[in-house]
Amino acid sequence: MQSAPSAPLLRIGTRGSPLALAQAHETRARIASFYSVDPDEIEIEVIRTSGDRIQDRPLSEAGGKGLFTKEIEEALIAGRIDLAVHSSKDMPTALPEGLELSAFLPREDVRDAFLSPVATTLRELPQGAVLGTSSLRRRAMALSLRPDLKPVEFRGNVETRLKKLADGVAHATLLALAGLKRLGLEAHATSIIEPDDFLPACGQGAVAIETRIGDERTSGLVARINHEPTQIALSAERAFLTRLDGSCRTPIGGLATIEGGVVTFRGMVLSPDGRQSESVRLEGSVADAARLGFDAAGELISRGGTAFFRADA
Ligand SMILES: NCc1[nH]cc(CCC(=O)O)c1CC(=O)O
């Protein structure tokens, strides 16, 4: 007689892109190793989201960030999965009722990479070069440094964008170094852009684990693999975004770094054409990280920085 398969220890929900799968597998490996269980006892369930389905128009027009999380969060609420693994950067600031971010993996590199077959850096691109990017932040920041560049829409997963670049659809593109590294594709980076020049998106490089509020078993299990400095940095960055009330139609950069118990938060808002911008830099204690992000947003609002994106919302 065959015995009935035993119920999995945990079920992880994720998107099916190679990057999402790499992140789900890393989460599974960390949990399995912490509890010394066979990784196969933790199921990975691939869920197709609206963001994966919609390919014909910019996502900022189709409804924004929530598109990559909606169906996964529905499965979580319904109890078909126990935890969801997401790129923090793709998550809306407001979570659906009943869900929480209960843990973060150690943050990967936060920087953006410059990729081009014709130049080593953004500054060295030929006059009027075509820049492929679907990120309003990268577009605005690139235009602030090089107003002559011609941005074109560049959708798809990391591999698709690399292929478009190789096919000559654009002279250059910008990608998160974190994604390239998690996919083992960092050799494709032509150069790396320092945050001083080009602030990353809030949450860039951080992987978030979402669970049901009240599911003590799962939140207890994942709490043990939580990377606290990442969680603290993310609390500042998410507070910043929440107060700015930015959608993905808004060029915003934000980064919290932690050193010796001190959190440094840098934030920036830009007009879509990159001609106007406001920046802020605040320091505070680790215990006040969320307050720091909140205050940084307040500072930009009081300087009128949010008028840049309110106008075209
Ligand atoms: N918007 C897509 C997305 N979401 C997360 C990453 C990269 C990994 C990360 O930032 O954690 C990417 C691709 C990119 O921006 O290059």
TrEMBL record:
It comes from Kaistia soli DSM 19436. Residues 235-301 form the Porphobilinogen deaminase C-terminal domain. It catalyses: 4 porphobilinogen + H2O = hydroxymethylbilane + 4 NH4(+). The gene is hemC. GO terms for molecular function: hydroxymethylbilane synthase activity. InterPro entries: HemC, Porphobilin_deaminase_cofac_BS, Porphobilin_deaminase_N, Porphobilinogen_deaminase_C, Porphobilinogen_deaminase_C_sf. Residues 10-218 form the Porphobilinogen deaminase N-terminal domain. This is Porphobilinogen deaminase. Pfam families: Porphobil_deam (PF01379), Porphobil_deamC (PF03900). Monomer. The porphobilinogen subunits are added to the dipyrromethane group. The modification S-(dipyrrolylmethanemethyl)cysteine is found at residue 248. Binds 1 dipyrromethane group covalently. NCBIfam families: hemC. GO terms for cellular component: cytoplasm. Tetrapolymerization of the monopyrrole PBG into the hydroxymethylbilane pre-uroporphyrinogen in several discrete steps. Its cofactor is dipyrromethane. Keywords: Porphyrin biosynthesis, Transferase.
